[in-house]
Amino acid sequence: MMKTDIEIAQETALWPISRVAEEIGIKEEELECYGRYKAKLSEGTLERLKSKDEGKLILVTAINPTPAGEGKTTVSVGLSQALCRLGKKSVLALREPSLGPCFGIKGGAAGGGYSQVVPMDELNLHFTGDFHAVTSANNLLAALLDNHIQQGNELNIDSRCITWKRCLDMNDRVLRNIVVGLGNKGDGFVREDHFVISVASEIMAILCLADGIADLKKRLSRIIVAYDRDGKPVTASDIKAVGAMAALLKDAVKPNLIQTLEHTPALVHGGPFANIAHGCNSVRATKTALKLSDYVVTEAGFGADLGAEKFFDIKCRMAGLKPDVAVLVATVRALKYNGGVKKEDLAKEDLSALKRGIVNLEKHIENIALFGVPLVVTLNVFASDTEEELSYVEKFVKERGCEFARSEVFAKGGEGGEELAKAVVETIDKKPSEYKPLYDLELSIEDKIKTLAAKIYGAKGVSFSKDAKDQIRKLTELGFDRLPVCVAKTQYSLSDDPKLLGRPRDYEMNVREVYVSAGAGFLVVLTGAMLTMPGLPKHPAAYDIDLTDDGRIVGLF
């Protein structure tokens, strides 16, 4: 019986983080250590590296997630390890896990099997405190806003038009809609309030898009927290919150360095969700990794319709990044699930279901092509996959002009990713990237949304609620119509309906709300029944996590 992920991680002999840093040219005195195995890179280090040449940028994305699992992070880790095995200098650039899914549905998010970043227990829990800093800065801003109103409301804020929400890095459905200010006059004014999960906070997005402390403060200053009685925006700068928030984020803005099970360096920093935020690790971590290596492997959350689209249209556009190749992860099991097979029956060979479900992979292949980036499709191989199933997918992919490789990185680590690594390097060498964003920023807000709905999600049209129409009109009047859009949408389907698997066609996408994240620099578009504060499932992963008497964490995936 194969060991669990946490057992594998805890039995691995880690290198001191100074040795990992040394492998990529970082001196011990340039590290700000958090124990023996994790550290932040100092501001001086980041400044020193700016003059160095950049390596190649590899994006790992996937088909729509299913209960069968796709293993995108596992493949990212395994690919970077495999590149190192081939004699290439590679660095990982990943997101930090949120406590919400860790204790909710996943139980951990550090890769899996023999392709993990470690120490996985510390990474999945408090790590270096970045998420706590984001949460504190977010809630400080909320507290200063309410206090400003309590102390006389000099800015004439309309208490019915407060847009800033509190946050918590935990799934907690009862906090979605609450009433605050109950009690005496000195306890504040009574109003409805809301919580989002910390990874959906605009401050998390800002942390991941900021290019340094000065840029961080500029972005924080632009956050819109409310509107006054004349309908004008009130910002974090207006209520004098920027300096204190920046102080809380002083260390959080620095990338974190850890390692994989095979000691490949990994910069793990930031963690916005891709279904309700832009789903990419920090710009600082990605740019730093590019200065430290020949090949950077990064990932974007959930399927290519969410994370990859936002990576291309938001992160790369804002940061001036040019991805060299994309890797699209799929599994036979997930494709059969898209073809209508129940989770408990996925281990059985079923070519007819595979043929029905492979249209999901087909659409994601088409989507990546829209951005002009060369593509390698990889199948994350499971023991139950048959040769006939694997060969069918390979033939399907190659008929569409894409490179193909199998991946066995879960069971074999870097060794199991060498076929994929060779395909990636060969593709970069032979197929130059012609990366371009999907849409022009000069398009109207409605047209940007309609472009995404038609070209990425395959919708026949878009239905805007009355509130959404009013919000779009207001945002256009305020001059925010030239920003990119960040669509909040279910991850389980190309559509806004999680039950529509495969490749939905002839449906209408429903937009119910549009608001601006002025500091992050994009518009958020809420579709379908998408929520920004998740709830716990019937059997949360927290039920299975424990601490032994000798201090070892168990049950963390």
Span between N and C termini?
15 Å
Any low-confidence stretches, pLDDT <50, length ≥5?
A: none
Assembly type: single chain
In which range does the helix fraction lie? 25-40%
**Overall body shape:** globular
- Biggest sheet character: 12 strands, mixed
> How large is the count of helical segments?
20
Number of beta strands:
25
Please outline the helices and strands.
Layout: H1 5-11, H2 17-23, E1 31-33, E2 39-41, H3 43-49, E3 56-62, H4 72-85, E4 90-94, H5 99-103, E5 111-112, E6 115-118, H6 120-124, H7 130-150, E7 157-162, E8 166-168, E9 178-180, E10 191-193, E11 195-197, H8 202-209, H9 213-222, E12 224-228, E13 233-235, H10 242-248, E14 256-260, E15 265-268, H11 283-292, E16 295-299, H12 304-319, E17 325-330, H13 332-338, H14 351-357, H15 359-369, E18 375-380, H16 387-399, E19 403-407, H17 409-412, H18 418-430, H19 445-455, E20 461-464, H20 466-477, E21 485-488, E22 508-517, E23 522-527, E24 546-547, E25 553-554
Parallel strand pairs: 3-16, 3-17, 4-15, 4-16, 8-11, 17-18, 18-19, 20-22, 21-23
Antiparallel strand pairs: 1-2, 2-14, 5-6, 6-14, 7-12, 9-10, 12-13, 14-15, 22-23, 24-25
Helix pairs in contact: 4-18, 7-8, 7-10, 9-10, 13-14
